Amino acid sequence: MPYNVVVAVDGGTASAAALDWVVDRARSVAMHVEVTTVVDIDWIPQVNTDPMLLEHERIVDEAGKRIRFSGVSAEVSTTVQHARRLPGLEAASRRADLLVIGSHKTRGAVGLIYGTLPLAVAARTHCPLVVVPVDWQPGGERVIVGVDDETGAAAMAFAAREAEREDDTLVAVRAWDVPPLVSGAWEAMESPIEAFESSERAVLDAEVARVHAAHPDLPVEAVLEYGRASVVLAQRAEGARLAVVGTHGRGRLAGLLLGSVSHDLLMNMPCPVAVVPTTGEAGQIEPTEPGAAEP
């Protein structure tokens, strides 16, 4: 069964970047691409809905043609969803293996496609979400993944498959810090920094060992760095093909919140960012079977 990718468009430049990213991915992965847009017509007088719907049909039709004429062999379909944007994209994530949206938020830029919608979608997605910056260009080296105690396993599994698919190096990054109360007590006791660093290294090494067991031929670089996680990851992700972080699957109300690392990366994007929810079996690091359509 082809890998099911849903790409959300609105006719803007960020949507074009998302489409180009999907096309680039389709060159190495067998997939079905659903091009979707979401339109809320409930608040519009009935007499005015037809022009709006026709415009949204035009947007997805043109986006679909852009993929078909690119030369990739992906199956392509188009949909116009009648819903509010966030619920519509959350629903799309339920039927997708991967959800892709574009963003105007890049390093030094301001604003996001649909305002802050990528942050909200990232908090509520039911499948991996890739947010593509408006200035994205094909290429990049390395797949960067943040190693976290609670959300890292699912992200690591996704990132390992991504790196293997692209015959690239996986860079597993774990940032660490010393709790303020402990740090403040350094003058009264022997510095615990070596103990903290050793403990963090053990966590990182265990995750890397899991990847090696499932992907023995995948080059993996382990990076343990002192500092704030979002800052460390953003710096390491400069020039990367993809940065991958995990997030908790949350309920309807809690889903309005997003972890600080994911939030900061999406607000200051060094490259395309994948946000992987910790749901289902996403955390199982399995080898990529030859010929399989992997994410």
From TrEMBL:
What range(s) does the UspA domain occupy? 4-133, 141-277
**Which spans of this chain does the record mark as coiled coil?**
none
A Pfam family per the record: Usp
Superkingdom of the organism of origin: Bacteria
Q: Which SUPFAM superfamilies does the UniProt record give? A: Adenine nucleotide alpha hydrolases-like
Q: Sorted alphabetically, which CDD domains does this protein's record hold? A: USP-like
Q: Which family does it belong to?
A: Belongs to the universal stress protein A family.
Read off the PANTHER family from this record.
Answer: STRESS RESPONSE PROTEIN NHAX, UNIVERSAL STRESS PROTEIN UP12
Protein known as: UspA domain-containing protein
Species this chain originates from: Agrococcus pavilionensis RW1
